[in-house]
Amino acid sequence: MKKKQGRSNTFTKAKDITYKVEKCHTGTITVFSDPVSGIKFMGGGRSRGVILYPNCILLDVGIAYTQEITMHPKNLMPELNKYDQPVVSIKISDFDAPGLDLYFWQDLLSGLRRIKKDVIVACVGGHGRTGLTLSILSVLTGACPNNEDPVAFVRKRYCEKAVESYSQICYISKITGKEVKEVPISRISQYGYHYSSGMYGSRFEDMF
């Protein structure tokens, strides 16, 4: 299948999934499976060519919607109705963490296990918010070993740029109760957006 060139802010629907782990991810990558239900958790970003698998649930953590995204009805997961959030959308600002407690994530996982469909987590670049979500769910499912840092677990299996800010690191530690020794992969200064390994973009428009 020929890949679309250039940046994209839309999700791509296709029958095939890309399994390709590089320094920066491309396509849709399977990160781990839930030991209890067997469902797969995958990650990607709209600007990194994420592909939507048929019959998967999309967790859009990037607060951006296109007409290509089909929102699941709220009755799909009654567990989440009390949070007054779209089932497939978790509202997280870029470089930030959500104001959601442990009970939300437990209810989310409960609903996903009941539906038993593979899950694609995606934001814009597929780094910060996607990495945060995958890190938390890797612990709650039991896929991440007890003695392993959840952020290191996700970076090793998905993208070494996953999880971008200190607020995200602290939130992951708070929700999972695990010590996170990994450091944020990026920082924001007056000059724009930087990765710890060097300048990535001089303007906020250049983030992804």
List keywords for this structure.
208 residues, alpha/beta, Protein-Tyrosine Phosphatase, Chain A, four-stranded mixed beta sheet, three-stranded antiparallel beta sheet, 4 helices, 9 strands, globular, disordered N terminus, disordered C terminus
Describe this structure in words.
This protein is an alpha/beta fold. The protein has one domain (12-181): Alpha-Beta Complex (Protein-Tyrosine Phosphatase, Chain A), CATH 3.90.190.10. Helices cover 23% and strands 17% of the residues. The protein has four helices and nine strands. It has a four-stranded mixed sheet with strand order 2-3-6-5, with helices on one face. Strand 2 and strand 3 form a beta hairpin. Helix 2 packs parallel to helix 4 (166-176). The longest helix has 14 residues, at 102-115. The radius of gyration is 16 Å and the shape is globular. Mean pLDDT is 75; it is low at 1-22, 65-70 and 188-208.
How do the strands of the widest beta sheet line up side by side? 2-3-6-5
Q: What distance separates the N and C termini?
A: 23 Å
The counted number of beta strands is 9
Number of domains: 1
Q: Globular, elongated, flat, extended or rod-shaped: what is the shape? A: globular
**CATH C-level category:** Alpha Beta
Helix and strand element order: EEEEEHEHHHEEE
Mean pLDDT: 75
CATH superfamily: Protein tyrosine phosphatase superfamily
Radius of gyration: 16 Å
Low-confidence stretches: 1-22, 65-70, 188-208
Largest sheet: 4 strands, mixed
Q: Approximately what portion of the residues adopt beta-strand conformation?
A: 15-25%
CATH architecture: Alpha-Beta Complex
Helix percentage = 10-25%
